Amino acid sequence: MTLSITDSAVNAAIAAISSESATAEEKIQMLIEIAQDSQKKAKNSQDLRNAMRLFYHAYQMCGDDYALLKARTKIGMAGILQISPDSTPQLLQQSKADYEEALEILQKHATAEEVAEAQMNLGLVLQSLVPYNLARITDSIQAYHEALRVFSWQDYPQEYAILYNNIAIAYLSMPMASEREYLRQGLAVQSFEVALKHINLIDHPREYAMLQNNLGNALQYLISSHPVENNLRAIAAYNEALKARNPRDTPLEYANTVSNKANALFNLPDHPEKPELGNPQNLLKAQAYYQEAWQIFTAHQQTEQAEIVAKALQDLQIEIQAISILN
Fold first, then answer.
1. Which InterPro entries has this protein been placed in (predicted)?
2. Contact, 119 vs 140, CB < 8 A?
């Protein structure tokens, strides 16, 4: 029988524990490293459970003697609970508790970067708990801002971009009275634009495309008295994202962006200065983008996304038929 990566990691951990030449601290450190490696390479729930078992074993070995290592095992277990496909609100609450407990120790003994990474992940857990009314979105945003004190654009551009992206998405999910809806959307747009002042296409193409794509989404659905202008800005953002996304190297990201662009074209007049003339040309462009996105999602077994695009295509074809009848 061929062993999976995590099976091998578990066996290696057991061998390390039984090694007489290693100190207790060294054994715990080895266990943590093997668990972290197993977590990164995990392909399913069983692999994650194996990694959790290693972290927990390391945690038990720490006792009261190795505070920093104990905190790192807590971070590891919190991360698995956070990403597990079997995760529930209760497991997410346990993840939150583990991060908060670990952070108290990390802030005394760990590097600023290690603390910031934990704050970044705590922000994500808090954001995941908001729909269950088990956390406040403002606490999530605060955790991200704490992490930004360390993850500057100069030294950590990838983390910086992800944090601002998360902050913007947090603003978009913030419940507000309808008359203040524009405020949270404006804060989200502003967050994307702040990040894009420092994240560029040449040096950080992946992060740049992510930010531009999500900026386009925020602009497209912005409540405003200038919907045409916002859609034009959204399409410009999608075009920027498509400078770094293509069907060969990043097919799913590309399909996501072209389907978003199709959504914007669906609602954009062919001649923005003469909206009364309608948008038959933009509808045909949108149709081509939807079809391309549907083909990619289908080829990659992304069933849910393929179904959403298929429904959009259906609605668009009805619109095109209605225009042809009128003409």
1. TPR-like_helical_dom_sf (IPR011990)
2. no
Mean pLDDT (10-residue bins), the chain, 327 residues? 58 67 86 89 88 92 93 97 91 97 96 98 96 94 97 96 96 73 87 96 96 96 85 97 98 98 94 83 96 98 96 92 73
- Token pair for 325: 């009848």
With CA atoms as reference, report the closest residue to 245 among 219, 211, 217, 222: 211
- What CA–CA distance (Å, rounded) separates 171 from 175? 9
Q: Which of 263, 274, 187 lies closest to 231, judged by CA?
A: 263
Strand stretches in the chain, DSSP E: none
> What tokens were used for 12?
């290696």
Q: How many angstroms separate the first and last alpha carbons of the chain?
A: 68
d(CA 136, CA 149): 21
* 178 CB burial (10 A radius; 0-12, 13-18, 19+): exposed
